[in-house]
Structures are given as structure tokens and as C-alpha cells.
């Protein structure tokens, strides 16, 4: 345990003041530009995962990041593609997990399998999206980037799912879009089929951009070995919380061993072999990890991903602000 819940709770005072007035029109641009590079490390959060309940909108996410005080983030493709006019059926709000933050200690919780009708609709939607992507307007992505950059926010990782049935031009689109948005890496879930990571890695080499593979509970010290051997562009989008939650007690040593192949890191607190906890209540060696990154200055960003149960009197942005305060306290002490 790195810090008690009472100590973690004390961080909420400053955090709550940061999130007051969230999403009020006209407030965002009056804010000073944030700078969440702390002790040489870029700190950000995962959008929309850590901001569920906020409308899927670039301006709304910008305002939330400003109120928290974050100058960087990893973001899924949907908000940018929706802004650019993609034919995506928009879910107007990413729903918060049960209990405003997911089952206690359980992270994301279970999800029911899609029905045949849902799978057919998804296939039709994907085909339409592919056609749109092959002639997507680059100027809209540059406009989206400017909206965030003008506020002082940098997209450092662009998460977009790739699949083997996509044409080469759609792979090119993914990397070109990431670059247009200013991202330093493309991220995706580590695929079960090694043919997909081999193909993604080759496109990463072509575009000079690393592909960071995220893994959830199956993560083990050798989980990324096959992908890393396929291409120098294949890297880890290491989720330390899931790594600890999968029962691995060697997170600190693993980071030190693999640092040269880590392009970005998700930070959260999990019980060893268990579920997600408020920071300081789990077994993730959060503070030692932060001190190691401060000492070594390896250069990859650290992403707050919120998936513990949010208290009834709080919100996801409030909790992200607490986690950010926790990180700053650790790095500046």
C-alpha cells in the first residue's frame, strides 16, 4: 500500500476546486494553459475512459482536461472522427460503469455478448466507416488538433482498433491521422492473432511511429514477446494496474527491464491478482514507479486511467484530479 485512503482523500480538496464549473460555456478559454509535465514526465489521462458521463465532444473533453489541469492525453479515435464527420452512430455519452465507477474492486466488470443483429449492424457500420476513411478530410483533423493545442493540450497517443480485414489504405489512414493530430504513438489492444501485430508493426515502420499494445488481465511478463520480436515499431502501452491485477508482483523490475520498448504507460492501483482500488489501497507500487521514472527520465508519458468505483459524492473528473494530485505529490517529494 502506497498511501492510505484518508491521505488520498485529502488530495480531493485541491482536486475539487479544479473541477468546479466543469463544462460551463465560455469558461475554458479563460483558463491558463495547463502544464502537466511534472519532474520531466508528461502526465495525462485516458479519454474517454476516465471521463465517462461527459458528452462525446472535443470541446467538452478539452474543458474537462483544462479544469483538471492536464496538458496531455491518450484518446480513442471516436471523438476526432465524429468531429471530422465520420458516419459513426454516436452514443451521445459514454456511460459510467455501475455505481458511477464500476463494480467495487472489479474494474470494468462483465459485458454481455453482442446479438447477431448487433454484429450485423456493426459490420454495416464498419464498412461505411472504411469508405469514409479512404477520403477523410485532413483539414478537419488539423482543425481538431488546433482546438486542443490552442488550449495547451497535446494528444500524445491515438488509440484506434486495427483489424486484418482492413485494406492497406485504412492502415495508412490510421497512422496518417495520428500524425495529423500530433500523436507520438498509435495504440491498440494486443491482438490474439500475431498476424495483426506483425502487419501493424510493418505499417508503424513505414510511418515512423511506434504501435503501443495495451493488455488487460491476461498480462504476463512474456505477454508481448511475440509482438516485440516482429517489429522494432511494436512497443508496450503498459497498463501497470492490469499487470499487477493479473498477479505479477514484479512491476517495478519489469518496467526497468522493458523501458526501451515502452511507448506509454497506464497507471492505476490494483490488488495483486485482484481488482481496481482507489489509489493507495492496492498493491501497485505507484510511488516507487513514479520515483523510478523521475530518476531515469525515459521519456514516455504516464496516463491516468480511472476504473475504480467513484464515490457517490464525486465525479470521474474529480477523481482524475485526485489521482493527478497524488502523482504530483509523489514526483515533487
Task: Indicate the topology.
Layout: H1 5-10, H2 12-19, E1 37-38, E2 41-47, H3 58-68, E3 72-76, H4 78-83, H5 116-133, H6 138-150, E4 154-159, H7 168-180, E5 185-189, H8 194-207, E6 211-214, H9 225-230, E7 234-239, H10 240-245, H11 251-258, E8 262-267, E9 269-270, E10 276-277, H12 286-296, E11 302-304, H13 316-331
Helix pairs in contact: 2-13, 3-13, 7-8
Q: What would you say this structure looks like, in words?
A:
By secondary structure, the protein is α/β, with parallel strands linked by helices. The protein has a single domain, classed as TIM Barrel (Alpha-Beta Barrel). The protein contains 13 helices and eleven strands. It has helices at 5-10, 12-19, 58-68, 78-83, 116-133, 138-150, 168-180, 194-207, 225-230, 240-245, 251-258, 286-296, 316-331; strands at residues 37-38, 41-47, 72-76, 154-159, 185-189, 211-214, 234-239, 262-267, 269-270, 276-277, 302-304. The chain has an eight-stranded parallel β-barrel, surrounded by five helices. A two-stranded antiparallel ribbon has the order 9-10.
Amino acid at each position: 500500500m502506497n498511501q492510505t485512503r484518508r491521505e488520498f482523500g485529502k488530495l480531493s480538496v485541491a482536486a475539487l476546486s479544479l473541477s468546479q464549473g466543469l463544462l460551463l460555456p465560455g469558461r475554458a478559454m479563460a483558463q491558463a494553459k495547463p502544464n502537466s509535465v511534472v519532474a520531466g514526465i508528461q502526465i495525462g489521462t485516458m479519454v474517454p475512459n476516465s471521463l465517462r458521463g461527459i458528452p462525446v465532444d472535443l470541446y467538452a473533453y478539452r474543458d474537462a482536461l483544462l479544469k483538471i489541469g492536464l496538458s496531455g492525453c491518450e484518446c480513442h479515435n471516436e471523438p476526432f472522427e465524429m468531429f471530422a464527420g465520420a458516419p459513426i452512430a454516436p452514443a451521445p455519452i459514454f456511460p459510467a460503469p455501475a455505481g458511477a465507477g464500476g463494480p467495487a474492486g472489479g474494474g470494468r466488470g462483465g459485458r454481455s455478448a453482442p446479438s447477431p443483429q448487433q454484429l450485423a449492424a456493426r459490420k454495416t457500420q464498419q464498412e461505411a466507416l472504411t469508405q469514409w476513411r479512404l477520403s477523410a478530410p485532413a483539414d478537419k483533423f488539423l482543425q481538431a488538433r488546433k482546438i486542443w493545442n490552442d488550449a495547451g493540450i497535446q494528444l500524445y497517443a491515438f488509440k484506434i482498433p486495427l483489424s486484418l480485414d482492413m485494406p492497406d489504405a485504412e492502415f495508412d489512414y490510421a497512422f496518417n491521422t495520428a500524425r495529423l493530430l500530433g500523436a507520438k504513438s498509435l495504440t491498440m489492444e494486443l491482438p490474439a492473432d500475431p498476424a495483426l501485430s506483425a502487419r501493424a508493426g510493418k505499417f508503424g515502420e513505414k510511418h515512423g511511429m511506434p504501435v503501443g499494445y495495451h493488455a488487460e488481465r491476461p498480462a504476463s511478463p512474456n505477454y508481448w514477446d511475440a509482438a516485440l520480436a516482429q517489429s522494432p515499431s511494436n512497443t508496450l502501452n503498459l497498463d501497470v494496474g492490469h499487470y499487477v491485477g493479473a498477479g505479477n508482483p514484479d512491476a517495478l523490475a519489469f518496467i526497468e527491464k522493458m523501458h526501451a520498448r515502452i511507448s506509454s504507460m497506464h497507471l492505476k492501483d490494483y490488488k495483486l491478482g485482484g481488482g481496481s482500488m482507489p489509489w493507495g489501497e492496492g498493491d501497485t507500487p505507484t510511488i516507487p514507479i513514479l520515483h523510478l521514472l523521475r530518476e531515469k527520465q525515459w521519456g514516455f508519458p504516464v496516463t491516468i486511467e480511472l476504473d475504480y468505483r467513484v464515490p457517490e459524492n464525486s465525479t470521474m473528473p474529480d477523481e482524475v484530479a485526485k489521482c493527478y494530485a497524488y502523482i504530483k505529490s509523489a514526483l515533487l517529494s
